[in-house]
Design brief:
Elements lengths: L5 H6 L10 H12 L13 H16 L14 E5 L4 E4 L7 H5 L3 H12 L10
Antiparallel strand pairs: 1-2
Helix pairs in contact: 2-3, 3-5
């Protein structure tokens, strides 16, 4: 195993992300493949690292889907009106990254991997 590709993300866990624009895929993969401290995730060939990268990429990819609020909005739509055209977005960034991870299934699955990783006992997450 090595760096993940978007085909890996689509295969497992997120087939619905096949429509994410290629430029976004490339940016997400560049970030995610360089994000993790290899020794804390079992090394470059570990299944644990591969899963963490896939879940993190899927988490970020989710925000690139139409209607996700990823196009400049602060978060998911929390209120809408029809007549006067009103829309309100949640502010996901006010309480830290951990709250942002909890906004997608893939982010929550990544959080579960972190909690299960015995090498991550301490202040380090990545």
């Amino acid at each position: 195993m090595a760096a993940i590709t978007w085909a890996d993300v689509i295969a497992t866990p997120a087939p619905e992300l096949s429509t994410v624009p290629v430029a976004a895929q490339d940016s997400i993969l560049a970030y995610v493949n360089g994000l993790f401290a290899l020794d804390l995730w079992g090394g470059e060939g570990s299944v644990e690292l591969d899963r963490a990268r896939r879940y993190m990429a899927a988490h970020f990819g989710t925000f690139e889907l139409p209607g996700s609020g990823g196009g400049g909005a602060a978060g998911p739509v929390i209120s809408e009106s029809a007549g006067g055209l009103s829309r309100a977005y949640a502010n996901l960034f006010s309480s830290g990254g951990d709250q942002l991870l909890g906004t997608t299934t893939y982010g929550r699955m990544y959080q579960l991997l972190v909690r299960q990783n015995t090498r991550l006992r301490g202040p380090f997450i990545f």
